[in-house]
Amino acid sequence: MNQRGARVAIKSDQDIVAARQKGRALAAEIGFSAMDATLIATAISELARNIVAYARVGEIELRAIDGCSREGIVVIASDDGPGIRDVRQAMRDGFSTSGSLGLGLPGVRRLMDEFEIASEPGKGTRVVTKKWRQ
Amino acid sequence: MEVPILKQGEFLIATFQAALSDQDLENLRRGLVQQVVKFRSRGVIVDVTAMDVMDSFASRTLREIAHMIRLRGAETVIVGIQPEVAFAMVQLGLTLEGVAAALDLEEGLAYLIEKFKNID
Predict the structure, then answer these.
(1) What is the pLDDT of residues A76-87, one digit of tens each?
(2) Taking the model in full, what pTM does it have?
(3) How far apart are CA A72 and CA A32, in angstroms?
(4) Which end of chain B has fewer beta carbons closer than 10 Å to its terminal beta carbon, N or C?
(5) Of B57, B60, B91, which has the smallest distance from its Cβ to A107's Cβ?
(6) Is B116 helix (H, G, I), strand (E, B) or coil?
């Protein structure tokens, strides 16, 4: 089993850049097209941005996934921040509690193929999102 | 990382690098507005050809730059948005509404020259 991937600690806006660069590099290594690598890097940027904006610190984990018939990438964004009170509402376009950066989550779902979110107020948020190579 | 701002007659040209942090973008916003004032510039070209990701913060900052510069009576044109970046922006739901865009530096300059041709 191949264990290509990286963990990037997210503590400041500089780390957002580092996370998306690592994600793009891994996507290229897996064989994603330049178009898909850009979509993945953009999704990572938004997820890391949410961490900095809402939780301040967290982590982005990037892994190559080898399915039986297909390859892909999984991006896991996790934090121990305040969590999201109403996940359903947060997944609606245009919703934001921190000003004008409210496009994050529904946008990320559109950029990727699979999207799961688990969040509990006071405990943090974990987003697991995947994209498969065409 | 510093974004170089070039003065070209009555226009300014700012060329973005690939890996700009939020802080870099905010510095650029401040620097550009200051220089527009200092040089009494009429137009600003923001060249984003090298930018590989345009997320919500970057596009909001670009919109703010354009609006601030418009309040000075000058015009901003964004040039060089890569096709992949444009695709990702649309998927993410980002827009640069009210901000002019052109294919490249040459067309951006042509746009500004055309825009200000009748004022002199």
Answers:
(1) 999 998 888 888
(2) 0.91
(3) 8
(4) C
(5) B91
(6) helix
Contacts of A108 in chain B (CB under 8 A): 92
Range A32-55 average pLDDT: 95
Helix (H) or strand (E) holding A75: strand A71-79
Tell me the C-alpha distance between A121 and A130, whole Å.
24
Contact A39 B91 (CB under 8 A): yes
Number of domains making up chain B: 1
DSSP A129: E
What is the domain-level CATH number for residue A54? 3.30.565.10
Domain of residue A24, residue span = 5-132
The CA-to-CA distance between both ends of chain A, in Å, stands at: 21
Q: In what order do the strands lie in the sheet containing B75-79?
A: B5-8, B11-15, B43-47, B75-79, B100-102
Which residues of A are less than 8 Å from B83 in CB distance?
A: 35
Which of B27, B56, B64, B89 would best serve as a mutation to test chain A binding (most A beta carbons within 10 A)? B56
CATH number of the domain bearing residue B90: 3.30.750.24
Which range of residues forms the domain containing residue B21?
Answer: 5-116
pLDDT tops 70 at residue B17: yes
Chosen from A8, A22, A24, A38 to mutate, greatest number of chain B CBs within 10 A? A38
How far, CA to CA in Å, does A124 sit from each of A82, A105, B45, B100? 6, 15, 42, 40
pLDDT at A100: 44
